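We emphasize that the prediction below concerns an isolated chain of 731 residues; any contacts that depend on oligomerization or on bound cofactors are therefore not represented. The input was used exactly as deposited, without trimming of termini.
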Amino acid sequence: MKARAAALFLVLTGLALAPVLSGHAQFFYRDVTRQYQPLQAQLDRAWAARELPLWNPGTQSGVPLAGNLHAGAFAPWAPIFRLLDFHRAYGLLVALAWAAWMTGLYVLLRRHLPPGASAVGALTGGLTGVVLGATSYLPLLAGLACLPWQLLALHEPRPLVRVTWLAALFTLQVLTGDPSTALMGGLACLLAGGLEARRGTTTSLLGAGVVALGLSAVQLLPAWTLYEESARASSSLDTRLGWSFHPARALEWVVRLPYGELLAPPYFTRWDLAAGPDAQPFLLEHGWGVLAVLMLGVALTTKGPLRRLGVGLAALGLTLSLGRHLGPLQQLFALPPLSLFRFPERYGVLTALGVSLLTAHGAGALLDAFKLRFRWALGWLALAAVLGGAALLADDVASRAMLLTAALVAGAGVTALLVSRVRWAWLLVVLAAGAIDGARAVRASVLTLPAEPLPAVAALPSSGHRVWRENAPLRSLERPVRGADGFAEERRLLHATFASATPGLHGVDELGGFSPVSLRRWQRVIQATAARPQLLSSLFDVCWFVSTHARGAANPEWRVVRELAEETALYETKACRGRAWTVSAVVDVASTEEAVQQLSLPGFDAATVATREGGEALPPLATTAVELSPRTSANELALTVQPGAQWALVVVSETWSPGWRAWVDGLERPVELLDGTLLGVAVPPGGRALTLRYEEPLATSGLALSTATVLVLLLLWFRARARAELRGLAR
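Result of the prediction step, given as a token string:
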């Protein structure tokens, strides 16, 4: 039965995502094309070069890659992106995670309820708004798919199996890129163990947490190093509480899109209710559907084994998702582990899990009250629902008409079975309404566009330099987008104007670009120099600017290379001088802020002077020629220095991070932090070959710890098996 249920849910998700899986549609919303696709492109290049994906040189003048959780460098699904094109791989993984979520719910519910009620609860959980919204955030969807399986693991009677099962699921949630779901799973299990008075829950969770930390150390240790260097580590509580669930949005539970539209302003909720980084909420709507609302009402008026757990999970998720609207209690989010994660609205997933359990409980109570023997009726109804849903998702009129006709025939079969029991006719209406509402929710909330190749970033007249997109002036040209066609056009414009991290898809280095984790020093220097194009070009080798015509007119040294779109153009400047140079003097500073102050001085000349943070005193310096060799590895830079009679301080326009190491003619030299965020190496007299290599901090320690944890687990399993065999022989 469980295998058949898993197959059914996989078929349902496959049907819903058939346009994506067939290559006729693509996911596009928010992070899909702005984050996940560019990150996968960098991973692809690293694996194709047969090197570890440690450093991403194409975005923000360089940023760590392996430590970026959202990149999923160690995710179990990573090979799928090597085998399929990005959009089909993404759609396949969404279908698998979505089906795993519903299958887990079904298996969990079958411990207490008959198949029909369990199927109602699983489908309700799969079609709730927060789950459908997560299809645009694969790491979140993959992580939340583990939640019902974690609750199931608590019922395992053997302690070692229970701890291993929980640890594997926690590890999967970390490796897939969203550790917040591991926190949700831990909270859900603690609540379930407490409500069910299950002995050993806390001990099992602590043991599983320790094992999971060990297993995922290969990802967590680099991620922690990156987090400490990032702007997120110093973000304010108010920033972390962006996209909290406003109580007025509870109307979305019973009324579909009461405040707006999915793809048109005000983008499915009022801005003052969303109150996040932008006007588009993190998890779309929170709709539960007609069926869930009615069954939820029944569940709250009856008793049963799932009621307390369902109410507890729903209340816990709602409380956490309120975030900034909790009054004084919002200070809880300043404490670890809640302080490590942003956007409380994501905790609404726990509410969706609780509502799914209550919906199934309500359906079970109805079936028990009416003594409905409806195996055949359920089969006909499922067929009608699948056909009706497929009809609503179909693109052409002929297919829709054929599928609707078949759905009506199946519906007639249900009616024939129930015609002698008129009092159940209303139940048929409710289930049919739920199926239609679910199909509509899928069609509207799984946001895809017709597949089309991305507009290639036009080849720059010269390679080897960076491009900078001036977002501030370009933002004045932005207009509200309406409908799928509007979003498709916006997507084309974003690529045509080098937006987000899209240049990286075509191998073009950029100074800006979206990265889920930006290094704090880099961000501070960029904020101070963004309004000074000449200094920006000099420090970061920016030869190309994307900006407005008005901005271009204010910079007479810029030359129009190509008109783009929407009053924008690609400009060239001669202020850039390459990725490496030498300076004749340094100004020692104590912090990034002091470096920024020096850079902001009117007479500061980055071509001859550099700020230096920390390090031993340097001898007198002389300038000399330096040449950067063509890059053959994302993790390494090779330079040739013209030998001289004095020391030379080489400045390399790549972002400083703790993992950088340097060698001059084979002898290791310290890596200096220059100009607030750039690399520097002091080359002794006569030095020629300079090599810089990025080695992920704590990566070796993480790999060793993960390997040791696996070995300890295997040892414990062999020991337990040997003891079991000895007990068997003793009998």
